[in-house]
């Protein structure tokens, strides 16, 4: 829990800073600095899973909070940008590709990819979990890079949202690997490398997608919106409601996370 508190200390001031950030694209050096945040989240997740993992109700509450933040990031940062030019075909194409890819990855890897500590060893192979999670994080990293190419504040808010995702993914995978007899060092190294993939894709997206035309950018943003909505509806909220662990207070954190992010967007 101390590691989780440390992550909150790092993230919340960042959100306040983002509210006052200038609306301009970010330099690659700034993107590289923010790319460290998912890595820190991974270290915290592995540490939590290896010491005293939060109980089901605490996990459910924090997953609701993360889902609200991600949902607000899509609503306030992605959707307005992808609809701005009115490129209907690009929006439909990108969104459809995002839906097909995310459900295709789910089908190809057998469904549950992140694993749950309380469910014990899963029938899903470790390689399938890593492949599916790697695809998720690579897409998220590219989307964050696009956000940084739009404006510094957009990239920061998306980074904060995805950081919560990485935290829960690392907790779940670390617990699953531990249940399968893997060492703590293996979990730490493998998951840190996976989180580094997000950072690398952030840099890739910021450097390669910044010069895209409006039509192509609308397609990419629509693709990313579908991927993040899948994260909220099919992963975070599904896991939050698993085994009747959610509570009224925990569910309200979804709206708290959404409202706080919405307020931050209004202050931009």
Question: How would you sum up this structure, described in words?
Answer:
- It is a single chain.
- By secondary structure, the protein is mainly α.
- It has one domain (30-49, 56-266).
- It contains 10 helices and no strands.
- Helix 1 packs antiparallel against helix 7 (152-179) and helix 4 packs antiparallel against helix 9 (214-240).
- Residues 1-24 and 115-123 have low confidence and may be disordered.
Strand-helix topology:
Blueprint (H helix, E strand, L loop, with lengths): L1 H18 L8 H7 L1 H15 L5 H28 L4 H21 L17 H25 L1 H28 L4 H25 L5 H27 L7 H19 L2
Helix pairs in contact: 1-3, 1-7, 1-10, 2-8, 3-7, 3-8, 4-7, 4-9, 4-10, 5-6, 5-9, 6-7, 6-8, 6-9, 7-8
Task: Write the element-wise H/E pattern from the N-terminal end onward.
Answer: HHHHHHHHHH
Tell how many strands the DSSP assignment holds: 0
* Number of helical stretches of at least 4 residues: 10
Question: Shape, please?
Answer: globular
Uncertain runs: 1-24, 115-123
Rounded to the nearest angstrom, the distance between the terminal CA atoms is 32 Å
Could you say which structural class the secondary elements and strand pairing correspond to? mainly alpha
Q: Report the average pLDDT across residues.
A: 75
The share of residues in extended strands comes to: under 5%
Radius of gyration: 17 Å
Q: In percent, how helical is the residue content?
A: over 70%
